[in-house]
């Protein structure tokens, strides 16, 4: 907790030790860069030390463990987010809450690999929550209702981001055109239109529209609009 709030606490006085050549911020930035490039599984004390040109044991003078480093990384990502707008209509404020969460996961896919249920009570996440509450404030909800709205928007944005990342990964491995060329004839044989009339009709329509098996970005825009309509009173 002291590491999370290090910039808000008074500097420690007294004590002697080797002069530090980098800062905790430098360590966290290096770890985030490594996770963005190679995935969370590649983040280790040894790997981050190598990024900074340090010996692995020296990194423990900055962070005590990978678990502590992970907490700092998650909070730093939240702290780097742009402020949410406050001078726009409620519909746009709610949309901004969800879009910020989705964009964050798309930019840092490794966030899906770290524990998220227990809140990281650092300055970045706390400031983010304050801004989210301000986006919801004034639309006629009680305090628990405001928190519920943030949770629902976050869960919707997170789930859609997971789908979007999976779709992008699948497309890199095999294009949609190649997939349909390989499996289309078999599907036509085992799924006759007479037996699956709705699937055939709707599947053809969305396939022509999306030129892909699905449209995560379009789903997000559509679903978010419906969610906000349900959230806003009257």
From TrEMBL:
GO molecular function: DNA-binding transcription factor activity; transcription cis-regulatory region binding
Region ranges (Disordered): 1-20
Biological process according to GO: negative regulation of DNA-templated transcription
Pfam family, one: TetR_C_1
InterPro entries: Homeodomain-like_sf, HTH-type_TetR-like_transc_reg, HTH_TetR, Repressor_TetR_C, Tet_transcr_reg_TetR-rel_C_sf
Domain HTH tetR-type intervals: 21-81
Protein's name in the database: TetR/AcrR family transcriptional regulator
Keyword ATP-binding part of the UniProt annotation: no
Keywords: DNA-binding, Transcription, Transcription regulation
Species this protein is from: Nocardia flavorosea
Domain of life: Bacteria
SUPFAM superfamilies: Homeodomain-like, Tetracyclin repressor-like, C-terminal domain
UniProt keyword Acetylation, yes or no: no
DNA bind region: 44-63
């Amino acid at each position: 907790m002291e590491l999370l709030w290090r910039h808000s606490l008074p500097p420690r006085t007294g004590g002697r030790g080797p002069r530090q050549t980098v800062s905790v911020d430098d360590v966290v930035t290096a770890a985030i860069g490594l996770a963005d490039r190679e995935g969370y599984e590649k983040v280790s004390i040894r790997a981050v030390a190598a990024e900074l040109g340090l010996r692995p044991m020296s990194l423990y003078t900055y962070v005590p463990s990978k678990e502590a480093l992970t907490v700092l990384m998650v909070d730093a990502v939240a702290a780097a987010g742009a402020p949410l707008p406050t001078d726009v209509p409620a519909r746009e404020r709610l949309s901004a809450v969800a879009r910020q969460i989705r964009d964050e996961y798309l930019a840092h896919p490794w966030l899906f690999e770290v524990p998220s249920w227990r809140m990281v009570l650092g300055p970045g996440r706390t400031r983010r929550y304050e801004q989210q509450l301000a986006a919801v404030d004034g639309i006629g909800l009680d305090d628990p209702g405001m928190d519920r709205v943030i949770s629902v928007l976050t869960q919707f944005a997170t789930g859609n981001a997971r789908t979007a990342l999976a779709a992008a990964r699948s497309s890199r491995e095999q294009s949609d055109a190649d997939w349909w060329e390989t499996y289309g004839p078999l599907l036509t044989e085992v799924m006759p239109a007479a037996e699956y009339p709705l699937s055939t009709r709707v599947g053809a329509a969305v396939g022509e529209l999306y030129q892909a098996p699905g449209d995560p970005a379009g789903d997000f825009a559509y679903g978010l609009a419906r969610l906000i309509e349900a959230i806003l009173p009257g």
